[in-house]
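Encoded backbone
================
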Amino acid sequence: MHLQDLWSIFHPAAELFGNLRDDPPYAPHCPINLPLSCQNHSTIPDSCCFEHPGGIFLQTQFWDYDPSAPDLNRDQLERELGPLDSFTIHGLWPDNCAGGYEQFCDPSSTIRDVSTLLKSEQFNSDEHGLEYSGEELLEILSRYWKGIRGNDEPLWIHEFNKHGTCIKTIKPNCYSRWEDSNTEVKTIDFHKQAVYDYFRVAYNLYKKLNTSEILAAKGIVPSTKKVYTRQEIEKALNEGFHGLQVHLVCDRNQAINEVWYYHVLKGSLLGQQFVPIPAVGARHSNCPETGVKFLPKGYHVPSRRPLLTGFVKLSGQSGFLVKNGHWMTKGTPATFSLLDNPFGDYYLRSRNGLCGFNNDGALQCNRGSQGAAQFGYDEASGGYLTYAGSPQWNADSRPQGMRQAPIYHGDSGAIVFKLKFEKRRQY
């Protein structure tokens, strides 16, 4: 089925999304004949009315059950994990139509604070007619958008900086177009408005996808004893999402951890006209076929995921990575570790420090946590390291002798390869 056919099927639902209480000063005025994102057959230059290249939107939800201690009371558990009968928000992610995704797109738009921003007068005055006051939205986020161990704000900051800065239709110049003529421009900070709207729209979409209720309707409920098959969980989720495939993620305990719901968008993000689509890219769950757990919130895992250590080799090439993240063919390979990243996936670390990218885009391992990247790793799929959903890496030239060669993510260099993490031992 084509995405345009889906628009005809889900048009009433999309209209409902679009008729939510828009923020009157910034209601987008976009042509009604725009195609769905990722369905254009020619270039659409109006980036305030059409998302590109990130036209696929994932509404992602957590089931975080493991508290910091085994003896917390209900109030303490909810502060750490959110409502005990509800999935919580992970984020709203704009994936590219052609695969992969952009991230941290606009350094000038990054934020270091959400709470103070939402408490500002701009979002707590009746004159702007907001759907939620800033303080109401902050209370909502504190309940439904939970970070690890209740450390929420670092997750909010990370999600906006990584994903929100890549959404074209909430750039400041778009707000200046949608602005009501009665609004006093000097009182409005359009950059702050984009932050507010990113969290507002993400929450509104989350409200329409009650994963716990979808599962409970099919008898799939949290338990420390009962287990389920992957097929019955996916069948329940798909039926609850208009019969469309969702993406199910399990954690190291073979327990439900995340659910990803895919959408395309008509018009601006501010219009909230999301149209459900099947999971893109033939995504396959990492959950086992049988024995999948759905652990209740408050279940304390005795031990954390073991730290993995090993070497990083290059597929189809001789050599390995050394401690600064460069490629060498002589000498001894560096020992690298894969560590849990609090925002998902893994940190990659050598003796030099955590790995990220320098200003030229080369892999560089000398970072603190602020400059560290998130890497994917799936032992079952060959043990390759991915970044931004892609396993492709490249270099402009091969190292010779003791000369090192920097490597880059993607396939644009003269030499293209994958990075394979060869596990040495666990401890």
